[in-house]
Write a structure and sequence with these properties.
Catalytic activity: NAD(+) + H2O = ADP-D-ribose + nicotinamide + H(+)
Helix content: 25-40%
Domain TIR: 13-177
Distance between the termini: 69 Å
Low-confidence stretches: 1-10, 52-56, 1016-1107
Organism: Cardamine amara subsp. amara
Radius of gyration: 40 Å
Shape: globular
Oligomer: single chain
Number of strands: 45
Keywords: Hydrolase, Leucine-rich repeat, NAD, Plant defense, Repeat
Pfam families: C-JID, LRR_3, NB-ARC, TIR, WHD_ROQ1
Length: 1107
């Protein structure tokens, strides 16, 4: 959809009817009566009163013809005597051909054949008018008269009186208006969905007065949506008005009267109405049902003048307001607001194609280019329309040449529209807009607020203002549309012809010029350089005094967005000065330390990832504002400076600083520190102890291979990850960590001792996976929900755990030393016992809500344990060693597919199946995805089920059985129709191996088996009591003669079966009433029973319940 500025090419239908006539013949009589009837049916007609007629069609008349949905031509005796009328007729005919407008001819006291052949009195008038015209004009008029005269219309001589004819014409016009929607908007992508949403807000069936808002950024298509809505609704309202382009219309007190005068003139169809007081709209419209669209409102005063209160209008009225500023709507207490969002990628591409190629899809060979152009336009409909039009008819080479220009600069038309919103901002909000556009787009709101804390800007309220005015979005982050970002950068570019005198520098060439020639000034407050845009062969020298004159520089960001180009910016070894920055972010910083004259007292964030730093600076710096340090992957870093004064530091990232040996004792002063990340500091040995950082909640010290001491930093810690260290024991002081929620110590191969008889009330997740020397079960908290003991020496699950650990949901007990599994808490939903090579007996049972039982590579399991595991009735999947499909699976086949015959009455919509596949040994992988596709005879897919076997990243040492269950039919809806004629179902199994990549391994499926289950109809929905197909057949033989077989009823009465939950209700045709029977199929496994039997069973059940 195009914006308001681009919509002039599409002619919105303002009027229902335009009438072409010869005034002297019909105006005072027939036409006045016709218009009165139109008015009574709320049909809007174009009123030409006051227009001075001349020899050519005036632009106003031409516009009115194009903006009318139905065009009526009243042929009278002297119609052809007016060249004005004949020119009108040509324009009407052209509109009919070009836009499909409806034309209705009315032959008033003139014969249609005389009009068609230009004969009789009509013909003589025509010939006289043509005397001074060229032969070409005469032929055009003659042809159009002949064409229009053949269109079905009304002939006055066929009616006994004019009143009846006029009534018929008015009714006919109204029907055409209602039945024929406007075609002006047929090519508007996504419009239909917008209109559906707006109809629900308008609630047109209600007699309440309603005011709704359509809100969105410039160029998003608000005006187009409003025009389409108005076009569809206008025939329902007697009085309607579209006030277009109200932007900047309120400038003085006089403009209040002018606005009210315009609205009343339009809605009452009276030219130049004068207003002498501001109560005029209420006085004239308070009892009238009206439709008013106020388009492009940018000032609250406009609403106060045109629609101050709903009481100004009559019952059933609808007022629609479009605006870029949400705050205007809220201030006017408009609560029903529709936000016009950006189109999807697919919709945006179609918009571009309609504009560039005049078709819905991309021309062959232009796919990649079209996608890039749509992306550069930010999916903004206005941009897509304007840019697409400029590329129409261009070759692929010309498209490629245009791409770089589109990426870096705005089309002037687009810029003018977008800039209006910026120009209306207050000075402080303009400054914030430029900060976001040039430096902080797609950034965290808290982060932006922190960095701009001393800028003098009210960041929180400013961001809200920009969001309300559709100049950005704030949903936890600052999100500015690409074209608005380009607008902001264009505004900064226009600040000066010299880059060093602009506020922000973001283009490589501008930054190169300033740093090489040392031309920066105090105007520069931010530099953002993407080094990937510097060619490897390009020279990019930096003067040693490059930053000396940029004393006000606050934000310096040097990064590499893409692979390619340079990885960083090289600077002279003798550079001594950097300004007093608030943000210093420099990827791959090339020197061993920061310049010696750098002062960090204003620094809020220091981000030097992948740097060559060995240390930051000498001595102690004042760091009162510093909140974040990120030295991630600075492999050469050996020393952390004294952080005594960094009392506001909140995050400290030292991950993979592989040369770092110790953490300084000065961290004991970091009482606002929340997160400490030191994963991969493989030389780290010494850390401070016996300190309590009040705010510290999260510590990560995984793979610090030399670390032996348990980090004792804070009693308030919530998450502690210290896997891959040389820690030998967890100290008893851990009992003081009352807020600890997560403790991960996997791969601590020296760990032997865990304190006992403590209960960390908050601990929910505990992992000691691959702690190969740990032999005792960690009785550390009874509130744990996830416990990972895989690859340890633990031999059993104590009975105390079964008794007290009522919250445990996920348990990995994969120990090579485990021989028996006799106790598992009933709350467990996932059990992994993978790799328990010594496990022989499993004596415990599992809840029917269990999601997974995995006994992968438990090769010593005895037959009784295998049988017990296989027969567990659980929701999820089971994995265990096996050699063949168990006997419980009544249908078996070799390979990956099996076809099962289905007898009528043995299944329903809620039927389930249980499947088993035998897998040959597989290579090392993390998991295998198993899927099952169900097909009916004739290759009709019924359903598909997917699940996964978790293999703990180890190869299998034997064949394995994988058992899972699923629904026989999709269960998306509560009521499903099942084809009772299905005679067989084919189950097709497939398998994919996941280990970094996804590979098909269907050849690993040796055998497969399936069992069809039927749920007890009156049982609990979660009991999963099942009956096999064989059992169903046996029970059928025991049915009484009173029972009715479903199949025979289907044959006699011809009904279809509809299943609601576990119960089959039978809907029967008219024959059912005559038989006066009521059949309901209860207890699907028992077949169909009579109404008497069903009532008897229900009474028995009620008596049992009451007892």
């Amino acid at each position: 959809m195009s914006s308001s500025s681009a919509s002039s090419s599409s002619h919105m239908k303002i009027y229902d009817v335009f009438t072409s006539f010869h005034g002297a013949d019909v105006r005072q009589g027939f036409l006045s009566h016709l218009h009165t009837h139109f008015e009574s049916k709320a049909i809007t007609t174009f009123n030409d009163q006051g227009m001075e007629r001349g020899q050519t069609i005036k632009p106003e008349l031409d516009k009115a013809i194009r903006e009318s949905r139905v065009l009526i031509v009243v042929f009278s005796k002297d119609y052809a005597s007016s060249s004005w009328c004949l020119d009108e007729l040509v324009e009407i005919f052209n509109c009919k051909e070009a836009q499909g407008q409806t034309v209705i001819p009315i032959f008033y006291k003139v014969d249609p054949s005389d009009v068609k052949k230009q004969r009789g009195d009509f013909g003589r008038a025509f010939e006289k008018t043509c005397e001074e015209k060229s032969e070409k004009v005469k032929q055009t008029w003659s042809r159009v008269l002949a064409d229009v005269a053949t269109i079905a219309g009304e002939h006055s001589l066929n009616w006994p009186n004019e009143a009846e004819m006029i009534q018929k014409i008015a009714t006919n016009v109204l029907e055409k208006l209602n039945d024929t929607p406007s075609s002006d908007f047929e090519d508007k992508v996504g419009l239909e969905a917008h209109l559906r949403n707006l109809y629900s807000l308008l609630d047109l069936e209600s007699d309440d007065m309603k005011m709704i808002g359509i809100w969105g950024p410039a160029g998003i298509g608000k005006t187009t949506i409003a025009e389409a809505l108005y076009s569809q609704l206008s025939s329902r309202f007697k009085l309607k008005c579209f006030m277009e382009n109200l932007k900047d219309s309120y400038k003085s007190t006089e403009s209040k009267f002018s606005l009210q005068s315009q609205l009343l003139s339009k809605i009452l169809n009276q030219k130049d109405m004068r207003v002498y007081h501001l109560g005029a709209i209420k006085a004239r419209l308070q009892d009238q049902r009206v439709l008013i669209v106020l388009d492009d409102v940018d000032d609250l005063n406009q609403l106060e003048v045109l629609a101050k209160e709903l009481s100004w209008f009559g019952p059933g009225s609808r007022i629609i307001v479009t605006t870029e500023d949400k705050q205007i709507l809220k201030a006017h207490e408009i609560h029903n607001i529709y936000h016009v969002d950006f189109p999807s990628k697919e919709e945006a591409l179609e918009m571009l194609c309609r504009s560039a190629f005049k078709q819905r899809s991309v021309l062959d060979g232009f796919e990649e280019l079209a996608n890039k152009v749509a992306e550069f336009c930010g999916y903004l409909p206005l941009g897509l329309s304007v840019v697409g039009s400029s590329l129409r008819g261009q070759s692929k080479h010309e498209w490629e040449l245009q791409l770089s220009r589109i990426e870096t600069s705005l089309d002037r038309k687009t810029e003018n529209i977008l800039r209006v919103g910026y120009d209306r901002l207050l000075k402080e909000d303009k400054s914030l807009f430029l900060h976001i556009a040039c430096f902080f787009n797609n950034d965290n709101v808290d982060h932006v607020s922190s960095l701009l804390a001393d800028s003098g800007l009210d960041v929180r309220n400013g961001l809200k203002t920009l969001a309300d005015k559709s100049l950005m979005q704030t949903n936890g982050s600052t999100t500015m549309h690409y074209l608005l970002q380009q607008l902001g950068r264009q505004i900064v570019f226009e600040q000066s012809g010299e880059p060093g005198k602009r506020q922000f520098l973001v283009e490589v060439e501008d930054i190169r010029d300033v740093l090489a020639n040392e031309t920066g000034t105090g105007s520069v407050i931010g530099i953002s350089l993407d080094t990937s845009k510097i060619g490897n062969d390009d020279t990019f020298s930096v003067g040693k005094r490059a930053f000396e004159e940029m004393r006000n520089l606050q934000f310096l960001k040097i990064y590499r967005d893409w692979f390619g180009g340079r990885d960083t910016l090289q600077i002279p070894e003798d550079m001594e000065y950097l300004p007093r920055l608030r943000l210093l972010s420099w990827d791959s910083y090339p020197r061993k330390s920061l310049p010696p004259r750098f002062q960090a007292d204003r620094l809020v964030e220091l981000d030097m990832q992948s740097s060559k730093l060995e240390k930051l600076w000498e001595g102690i710096q004042r760091l009162p504002n510093l909140k974040s340090i990120d030295l991630n992957r600075s492999h050469c870093l050996k020393e952390i400076p004294n952080l005594l004064n960094a009392t506001n530091l909140e995050t400290f990232n030292l991950e993979y600083c592989s040369s770092l040996v110790e953490l300084p004792s000065s961290i004991r002063n970091l009482h606002k520190l929340k997160k400490l990340k030191m994963d991969g500091c493989k030389k780290l040995r010494d850390i401070p102890t016996n300190i309590n950082l009040a705010s510290l909640e999260e510590v990560e010290m995984r793979d610090c291979y030399q670390l032996r001491s348990f980090p004792d930093f804070s009693m308030n810690i919530r998450k502690l990850r210290i896997g891959g260290t040389k820690i030998e024991e967890i100290p008893s002081s851990i009992r003081n960590l009352h807020k600890l929620e997560l403790l991960v110590m996997h791969n601590c191969q020296m760990l032997r001792v865990i304190p006992t008889n403590i209960n960390l009330a908050s601990l929910e997740v505990f992992s000691v996976n691959c702690c190969s020397r740990l032999a005792s079960f960690p009785d550390i908290s009874s509130n744990i929900t996830k416990l990972d003991l895989g690859n340890t020496k633990i031999k059993d699950v104590p009975t105390s755990v079964v008794r007290c650990w009522s919250r445990l949901k996920w348990l990995d007990i994969g120990s090579r030393s485990l021989k028996r599994l006799t106790h598992v808490p009933p709350s467990v939903r996932v059990l992994h016992a993978n790799g328990c090579v010594s496990l022989k007996r499993v004596c415990c049972s599992f809840s029917n809500e269990t999601k997974r039982l995995s006994f992968y590579n438990c090769i010593q399991l005895d037959e009784e344990s295998r049988r017990r595991i296989i027969q567990q009735s659980i929701q999820g999947e089971i994995l265990l060693p096996g050699k063949e499909i168990p006997a419980e699976f009544t249908h078996k086949a070799t390979g990956k597919s099996i076809t099962i015959p289905l007898a009528s009455g043995t299944f329903s919509a809620s039927s389930r199946f249980k499947a088993c596949i035998l897998l040959s040994p597989i290579e090392k992988c993390l998991s295998q995805d198993i899927s099952c596709r169900l097909r009916s005879k004739g290759d009709g897919t019924i359903h598909s089920v997917s699940t996964a076997a978790w293999l703990s990243n180890m190869p299998s040492w034997s064949k394995h059985l994988f058992i899972f269950s699923g629904d026989l039919f999709p269960q998306q809806n509560r009521c499903h129709e099942v084809d009772v004629t299905i005679s067989e179902i084919t189950f097709e199994f497939s398998c994919q191996r996941k280990h970094g990549t996804v590979d098909s391994c269907d050849d690993k499926i040796i055998e497969c088996g399936v069992e069809i289950m039927t749920e007890e109809a009156e049982g609990s929905s979660r009991e999963h009591a099942t009956t096999t197909t064989t059992q169903v057949k046996r029970k059928r033989k025991r049915k009484t003669e009173k029972g009715l077989k479903t199949k025979s009823w289907v044959g006699k009465l011809g009904f279809k079966t509809c299943i609601l939950g576990p119960r089959i209700r039978v809907a029967v045709a008219a024959k059912w009433k005559s038989l006066k029977l009521e059949v309901a199929a209860e207890n699907r496994h028992e077949g169909t029973i009579t109404t008497t039997q069903m009532d008897t069973e229900r009474k028995t059940k009620k008596q049992k319940v009451s007892r």
